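Section 3.1: Structural characterization of target chains.
Under the original work plan, the team committed to producing a structural model for every single-chain target entering the pipeline before any wet-lab resources were allocated. The record below documents one such target. The sequence was received from the expression subgroup and is listed exactly as submitted; it comprises 235 residues.
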Amino acid sequence: MSPGTVLVTGGASGLGAAVASAVAAAGGRPVVLDRVPCDPAGPWGDGREVEQHTVDLADTRAAEAAVREVSARVGGLDAVVTCAGTDACGRLDDVPGQDWDRVVMVNLLGTVAVVRAAMPDLLERRGRVVTVASTLGLRALSDATAYCASKFGVVGFTRALAAETQGRMGVTMLVPGGMHTAFFDGRDAQYLPPPDAKLNQPGDVAQAVMFALSQPPGCEVRELVVTPAVEGSWP
């Protein structure tokens, strides 16, 4: 089955780009929301053009407006995958307040805003949502208060959303471990994965998203934990 028209946040790179590519390969129509434009040559490296709308998910009202605009332009949405995410590593008293706040605004509030705006389409079509949490949404680490708070929030939001909408739309929470993406770029050395870290390829993790999107009506994959075979943050 084609996944239909799928809105992917953070689709200009990393897991989001891999999900968008997988949707297209499955015969679906990916539409990207990201705060930076996609590479004109295509984030998938094959020159395909990408439908996208540029918006900063930290501005939740703008994010909602962007989703409604996309929906009107493409004739409605069948699914939403919320891959956009950011981080601000460091101890709580060392991370500037605006940086700490932005992590929660993008990872949690931006996720909620996008899903909220897409719900009329998803309820009408019995569509699906895949939120992207993290192993650090289930296990806390030092120097990660902002990220853990945001991802613990995504866990709670997704579980409550599934309870609230059960039987009317599909809700899956993806819990990925470490991946080879630009997520770690620009970090201080102490917050980088070690050189021998075993990280998943985003294209492999994207297949877990496609598995959730491809379930038959009435069958739900509620939660998926997908980590490298050797994963330091899980269990």
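The first strand starts at residue 5 and ends at 9.
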